[in-house]
TrEMBL record:
Keywords: ATP-binding, Cytoplasm, Kinase, Magnesium, Metal-binding, Nucleotide-binding, Transferase. This is Acetate kinase. The keyword Cell division does not apply. Its EC number is 2.7.2.1. Substrate binds at R57. Its main location: cytoplasm. Homodimer. One of its GO terms (cellular component) is cytoplasm. One of its GO terms (biological process) is acetate metabolic process. It comes from Amycolatopsis pithecellobii.
Length: 364
């Protein structure tokens, strides 16, 4: 089956063709270029020809445990979740509308980041908030980057002689999250009700004392839309440095002696290590840690820096392996914990989920 895969991320729009499970074409557009003219999707369709089906990544799918065939009603419901993932959800809705109009008659499958975490243990999923608020089970921790985690589990098992039972998936791209996985199942994760919780990110703040936010709303010159904009678009590495938050530029500035860039990277790494430490505590031991996402893939030096600041977890890096390319083991032979660098494979998972859904007898 030939699947056109659309993966709107917060900094990029990734479009691929996955042919019987293998990625045959792929292109990445900066997110800012996507919106209005939707050129990325149109170009993908025109360049690569008609697929058999389309799979679209939606970061928020509420408590849905798996993918779903798109119809008008589902699309309206997904659109209503927009405010819970403002950097992603409306873009996913927009590109879905576009492909439905451009390729009428083809099945479109929505795949959700949240599904992988839909079975989170209650203690990890709930917030310590008034009971009445959480009664309908909506104000819970949903978790994100689930499609990336799913792929990391599969790929890590291929790279290691024996599949890891207890692992962490550190997805480090424009969005950053850490997930603890036992026997392939998510048991805790750093993102929560929205993809704003947890580590500091390219433009997102990550977790901030809710008391600070109340204080800013009560005393600062900012309303709720202004606060939302600040936390999603103008915080994180971007906010701390006054740049776009692209780590390529920030690391180059740090190397050139820019102190603000150096301080921002220190905060970014510190907050990520805290999330790794916190999430790891849901496992009784650690067999493997996967580093994936754009930053993990392209900035191995930063991964080494991250790991060197985690002596308590006993992680070791093999610098000669780190300098290699492709999906690989980056810990030394015989290390207690296997460290793996894996290119994010959300597109493969999206195609896999779409193929399985469309082959299911209930779909016929
Ligand atoms: N050489 C590189 N190429 C692409 N992205 C890079 C590179 N080095 C670092 N990055 C970082 O990776 C991030 C993109 O990661 P990615 O996982 O593709 O993000 P998203 O899916 O959220 O759009 C960028 O914000 C950028 O800072
Ligand atoms: C959930 C999320 O933040 O996704 P991305 O890293 O692709 O922006
Ligand atoms: Mg992404």
């Amino acid at each position: 089956m030939r699947i056109l895969v659309l993966n709107p991320g917060s900094s990029s729009m990734k479009v691929s063709i996955v042919d019987n499970g293998a990625v045959s074409h792929t292109a990445v557009w900066p997110a800012a270029d996507v919106g209005g003219d939707e050129s990325a999707v149109r170009e993908g369709i025109e360049r690569w020809g008609r697929p058999d089906a389309i799979a679209v990544r939606f970061v928020h799918g509420g408590s849905r445990p798996g993918p779903a065939l798109v119809d008008d009603e589902l699309l309206r419901w997904l659109d209503r979740l927009g405010p819970l993932a403002p950097l992603h959800q409306s873009l996913s809705v927009e590109v879905t509308r576009l492909v439905r109009a451009s390729l009428p008659g083809l099945p479109v499958v929505a795949c959700f980041d949240t599904s992988f975490h839909s079975g989170l243990p209650d203690a990890a999923a709930r917030y310590a908030l008034p009971r009445a608020w959480t009664a309908q089970n909506r104000l819970r921790r949903y978790g994100f980057h689930g499609l990336s985690c799913q792929y990391a589990v599969r790929r890590c098992a291929e790279l290691l002689a024996s599949p890891p039972v207890r692992m962490l998936c550190c997805h480090i791209g424009a969005g950053v999250s850490v997930t603890a996985i036992r026997h392939g199942v998510s048991v805790d994760t750093s993102m929560g009700f929205t993809p704003l919780e947890g580590a500091a990110m390219a433009t997102r703040s990550g977790s901030v004392d809710p008391g600070l936010l109340l204080h800013v709303l009560a005393t600062g010159d900012v309303d709720v839309p202004g606060l939302r904009d600040a936390l999603y678009h103008r915080s994180g590495l971007a906010g701390m440095t006054g740049t776009t938050g692209d780590l390529r530029d920030i690391l180059a500035a740090r190397a050139a002696g820019d102190q603000a860039a150096g301080a921002a990277v220190a905060v970014y790494l510190h907050r990520l290590r805290r999330e790794i430490g916190a999430v790891a505590m849901s496992l009784d031991r650690l067999d493997a840690v996967v580093f994936t996402g754009g930053v993990a893939e392209h900035q191995p030096g930063l991964i080494a820096e991250l790991v060197h600041g985690l002596p308590l977890l006993g992680l070791e890096i093999d610098t000669s392996r780190l300098a290699g390319t492709g999906d690989r083991l980056i810990s030394p032979p015989g290390a207690a914990v296997s460290l793996c660098a894996i290119a994010a494979g959300e597109d493969v998972e999206l195609a896999r989920e779409a193929t399985a859904l469309l082959a299911a007898p209930t779909h016929l």
